[in-house]
Amino acid sequence: MLNVLLIANECGHTGMIAATIPQKKLIDFVEDKGYEAVEFQNEDYDSTDTVESLKKECGYFTLKTLPDAEETY
Fold first, then answer.
1. How far, in Å, are 17, 55, 72 from residue 23 at the CA level?
2. In this structure, how many other beta carbons lie within 10 angstroms of the beta carbon of residue 46?
3. Contact by Cβ (8 Å): 15, 55
4. In angstroms, what CA-CA distances link 32 with 21, 48, 63, 70?
5. Distances 42 to 19, 62, 64 between C-alpha atoms, Å
6. What is the pTM of this model?
7. Partner of 12 at 20 to 30 A CA spacing, among 24, 36, 61, 72?
């Protein structure tokens, strides 16, 4: 299942990350990178959306492309 999460760094800058891992693991992942997990946005997407399409079309982060939060200040 696709999970799309709104995230924020400590300066308040926000972004989106898309992944297919369970929600709890995604929250742990972004928090380990120094972000705040703000809110899942899953209801805004349908079954045709993929991690790769959201990365390419919308510029969303993925597990492979999310930098550490301190690099985004």
1. 11, 18, 23
2. 7
3. no
4. 15, 29, 12, 12
5. 11, 15, 20
6. 0.94
7. 24
CA 2 to CA 26: how far, in whole Å? 11
Biggest CA–CA distance in the chain, Å, is: 34
First to last CA, the chain: 31
Grouping H, G, I as helix, E, B as strand and the rest as coil, residue 43 is: helix
pLDDT tens string 1-47: 999 999 999 999 999 999 999 999 999 999 999 999 999 999 999 99
The token duo for 33 is 């990178």
